[in-house]
From TrEMBL:
InterPro entries, A to Z: DUF4371, RNaseH-like_sf
Name of the protein described by the UniProt record: DUF4371 domain-containing protein
Organism: Acyrthosiphon pisum
PANTHER family to which the protein is assigned, alphabetical: PTHR45749, ZINC FINGER MYM-TYPE PROTEIN 1-LIKE
The DUF4371 domain, residue ranges: 15-173
Length: 328
């Protein structure tokens, strides 16, 4: 229910360039209404009567109404989650933070509880505005957050965060501070995060591992830096069944590098061909041709493909294990 509501909110919130019914650029909300009106006589009549009347006319078709609908759905879903939590009484919390696209740090708050039919569920409650990374500040923000929702933190029976000192510290970490409000809120480190750290530090221990991932990132940076180069690569890879375009390395989720290795492993021969074509293309800038030639020399060596195959097998195991974790 929560995931469906969030998807609907994200979909509706994509507004178009105008608010004109019949326009091809009026956004998802009006586009959806136009589609439904073809099967709903009442809505069809309403649109015919009130659409495109301009400001000052009540049509209930504007983006303001769309925003009101989104807020209403949010409120309804949240109230339902709160009621389920209060009915279940006991719950656990999961909190993590990450910067959004505008580089503003946000804390994600989710809870777990048991439904009356004994099935466990995990629900997203919302984002906390940036409160810093000090355990004391986060504690106050979380207590106020749950207090505003009407959920008693004394009924918290579990907490799961990453392994950062400010979160997992046994004396001044967030988990120890939450325990002062609920002594039975046992702390369980995020297993997926722990496994992620294992892979990260293991790869950093060897110069071969570091050079390998620098090379894979260099390929992505080179091709993605130009639409024409990306098109050349895409055309080459289209001839390989089940091939995928190169992927960018994720600095935080190490297991996602599985998709990086998979894309190179499946399309290795065509990636080499694309580099060779660019290095020999006289219409390309000299700097581009030299860079393509340098990458070609690095990647046409047999050991590169061997490294890709070995790392792919190792990371696939981590990816599979992480998907099995349900702690966070």
């Amino acid at each position: 229910m929560v995931n469906s509501s969030r998807s609907v909110k994200l979909w509706f919130s994509k507004q178009g360039d105008d608010q004109i019914l019949g326009s091809g650029h009026n956004g998802n909300y009006l586009g959806c209404l136009e589609l439904i009106s073809k099967f709903d006589p009442f809505l069809s009549t309403h649109i015919d009567k009130y659409a495109n009347k301009g400001k000052g006319n009540m049509s209930y078709l504007s983006n303001t109404i769309c925003d009101d609908l989104i807020l209403t759905m949010t409120k309804t879903v949240l109230e339902n989650i709160i009621q389920e939590t209060i009915t279940s009484k006991y719950f656990s919390i999961i909190i993590d933070s990450t910067p959004d696209i505008s580089k503003v740090d946000q804390h994600t708050v989710a809870i777990r509880y048991i439904l009356p039919d004994c099935s466990p569920v995990e629900r997203f409650l919302g984002f906390l505005p940036s409160v810093g990374h000090k355990a004391k500040d986060m504690e106050l923000a979380i207590l106020h957050f749950f207090s505003d929702l009407g959920i008693d933190m004394k009924n918290c029976r579990g907490q799961s965060y990453d392994n950062a000192q400010n979160m997992s510290g046994i004396y001044n970490g967030l988990q120890s501070r939450i325990k002062k409000n609920s002594s039975t809120a046992e702390f369980v480190p995020c297993s997926a995060h722990s496994l992620n750290l294992v892979g990260t530090f293991a790869a950093e221990e060897t110069s071969v591992g570091n050079r390998f991932f620098m090379t894979t990132q260099g390929l992505y940076t080179f091709f993605s830096g130009s639409t024409s180069r990306w098109k050349i690569l895409e055309n080459e890879l289209n001839s390989i069944p089940n091939s995928t375009l190169l992927k960018n390395l994720c600095p935080t989720r190490w297991s996602s590098r599985y998709f990086v290795c998979k894309s190179i492993k499946n399309g290795y021969k065509k990636i080499v061909v694309a580099l060779q074509n660019i290095s020999e293309d006289v219409s390309q800038r000299p700097a581009t041709r030299h860079e393509a030639l340098a990458l070609l020399k690095k990647n046409e060596k047999p050991r590169i493909y061997i490294h890709v195959s070995l790392v792919d097998t190792y990371i696939r195991k981590i990816q599979h294990d992480q998907q099995k974790f349900t702690i966070c």
